[in-house]
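[step 3/7] fold_predict: job queued, chain A
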Amino acid sequence: MADLVPFRGLRYTTEAGPLADLLAPPYDIISMEERERLYARSPRNVVRVEFGTDEPGDGAARNKYTRARAALAAWTEQGALARDGAPSFYLYDHHFAVAGAAAKRRGLLGALRLYPEGSPQVLPHERTIPKDRADRMSLLRATRANVSPIFGMVDDGDGALARALAAGMTTERLVADVRQGDERHVVWRLDGGPMAASLATLLAPRRVYLADGHHRYETARAYLEEERAAGRSRAADDPAAFVLAFVCALEDPGLRIFPTHRVVTGASAALDAAIASSFEATPLTAAQAGGEGIVLVRDGAFTALRPRAALDRSAMPAIWRGIPIAEAETFLLPAAREAGGIVRYEHDAATAIAAARGDTAAVLLAPVDAKTLQRVADAGERLPQKTTYFYPKVPTGLVLRPLD
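[step 4/7] structure written:
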């Protein structure tokens, strides 16, 4: 049902320098300190496009978005970036480690067609934040390029996608093999021909479930509507009608989905009231916390929060029931926000626990697995924003997708 097609990628050449110095994480996980390190690593690091810095005197005519456009143009003119001659799929193995154990996630980069909201071909699983969409729109308008890919999953219960990817990863198609710390990125280019056509046909009947990059997908769709309203995009296969996407199987053994925990400051009384009305609270040791859905941490004390059996869940979507993040965001955290508490998001449990001192509490949440995300999306629902953290992120800079 979803249209994923080859495209002419824009890639770094050897003229640009070592690829390890040119890649960057996607914008939403780059801290200010990390951005400075990436800027220093290379004058051509893709962070200058993906997440540029503000400068004194910036305004409508000169800003980080216009500098991103200028950087792409200059690097292309200098030969540091070059466009592939034929539309291609880019097959990709991402090697990484979790808790000291080696893992590998396999998928491919292609151009995914944009569908109207509510269409069954591409389904989101969580809600988004408007300010992030505005930033991505400014970058897309300025550069007319998909800089970092969205991340989608498809059901591959029959293993056909896994077999097709393995068949395409031949030595003569290898275009990148780079190490960054404990990560390794290996890319093969599958240009045209029967194998690419067969891969597109294999993917066509499958739904794509958005894993990461909801903001980028929604921004690309809004940009397409803007282009069509202005009369600049009329053809069904106009480049603006697609977005750069990394797609892997729901069943891929390297797929890792971590929870996004909550750290709450300044609402202790409100949390206590919400717990008293909606949850059974049971003290735990730190070692026991990993097996629970919702755990409250305060000053080194761990408490399991289990929704009361008689809790009225009629106001929440049926598909949400029993999912810890959904129950925490329905029955626990709204009270904290309404009381003026500050709720921030934290991927690392140890960091969240360390922050839980005094008037700050951590709410640790169990992860949501891929099949649960699939069920939620198939039901036409979305989980709360910042539900999942797909690890590791697909780096920015392996392949860019210009719209011109």
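[step 5/7] annotate
The chain has a mean pLDDT of 95.
The radius of gyration is 22 Å.
exit 0
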